[in-house]
Specification:
single chain; 343 residues; alpha/beta; Rossmann fold; Dihydrodipicolinate Reductase, domain 2; seven-stranded mixed β-sheet; six-stranded parallel β-sheet; 20% strand; oxidoreductase; NADP+ binding
């Protein structure tokens, strides 16, 4: 059994990780930390875990965490990088669901996250945990930078076009919408029911923290820097991300759908829908699936891609478990093959 620890088990990402790991046949939950809830039973805070998790929250303690085979960080940005060196030295593997190890350039990291990086040597080693791009590297990794939710939806939507050099990647536009759980569990006026319901608004228009991450991923695929306008929106729903992606074709293409179908045919968690189908966020709720459709409106030179994920699963905890499966040589679908919830 894989002994797993979770640092930061009280947020929405943390409880989603717990929901998946308690049903994973090869995982034993050993440590679940929370400074604010230390001593309290996990199931008393999250009653959906009653009968599945018989552990109390504890203070983050390196000695206890170092006894785990893998440690997940579901913590605020800037937390994991202060503890990871000791855990790696002790032989534990690490999967960070925050942003500490996603941005490779330390100056860019400081620009967007407002702090110096605590361990740039380990940052260089960290593998970006998108299995559809880095499967083999993930299998050999000690530390994984789990992708952000928006970068997952946007990158998976653009990758086939950029890999095949089909679009002008200097002028990409990503119009994305997320449910309020993406803002986290902390109290905020903007995400109160009376503030967020029956309303849609753009945010981070001048620059969102996921922008440099998406540019880094797509630039790595392209082999050069890409130009991207990324505008996220807050939607009056709990879960889900829909990313509508635009690009201008550089050449005539007979069958865009076939290009997508071929690229993702062996990917267990990317579903290219039939021609003319439009993916819905409700079709991936609670699942680790990304569903994608590609369109060429009126046969013109603009390609439109729609990509949907559950931000808490494929965009966070589910992708983290997928990475763990690869790191430990398990069937990569283990524990994350749940059917989406409908209605």
């Amino acid at each position: 059994m894989i002994k797993a620890g979770i640092v930061g088990g009280t947020g929405y990402t943390g409880v989603e990780l717990l929901r998946l790991l308690v049903a994973h046949k090869d995982v034993e939950l050993s440590v679940i930390t929370s400074r604010s809830e230390a001593g309290q039973a996990v199931s008393s805070l999250y009653p959906n875990l009653r009968g599945h998790v018989d552990i109390n929250f504890s203070e983050p303690d390196i000695d206890s965490l170092a006894k785990c085979d893998v440690v997940f960080f579901a913590t605020p940005n800037g937390t994991a990088m202060k503890m990871v060196p000791q855990l790696l030295e002790a032989g534990a593997k690490v999967i960070d669901l925050a942003a500490d190890f996603r941005i490779k350039d330390t100056a860019t990291w400081k620009q967007w996250y407002g702090m110096d990086h605590a361990c740039p040597d380990i940052l260089e080693e960290a593998v970006y945990g998108m299995p559809e791009l880095n499967r083999e590297a993930i299998k050999q990794a000690r530390i994984i930078a789990n992708p952000g939710c928006y970068p997952t939806a946007v990158s998976l939507g653009y990758i086939p076009l950029i890999e095949n050099n089909l679009i002008d990647d200097a002028h990409l536009i990503a119009d994305a919408k997320s449910g309020v759980s993406g803002a986290g569990r902390g109290a905020s006026v903007a995400t109160l029911l009376c503030e967020a319901t029956e309303s849609v608004k753009a945010y981070g228009v001048d620059g969102h923290r996921h922008l440099p991450e998406i540019r880094q991923v797509l630039g790595g695929v392209a082999g050069h820097d890409v130009g991207l306008t990324f505008v996220p929106h807050l939607m009056p729903m709990i879960r889900g991300i829909e990313a509508t992606l635009y690009g201008v074709l550089k050449t005539d293409v007979d069958d865009l759908h076939q290009i997508y179908a071929e690229r993702y045919k062996d990917e267990p968690f990317v579903d290219v829908l039939p021609l003319g189908s439009v993916p819905e966020t409700r079709s991936v709720k609670g699942s680790n699936m990304c569903r994608i459709s590609v369109f060429r409106p009126q046969g013109g030179d603009t390609v439109v891609v729609s990509s949907v994920i559950d931000n808490l699963v494929k965009g966070a905890a589910g992708q983290a478990v997928h990475n763990m499966n690869l790191m430990f040589g398990l069937d990569e679908k283990t524990g994350i093959s749940q059917v989406a919830l409908l209605p």
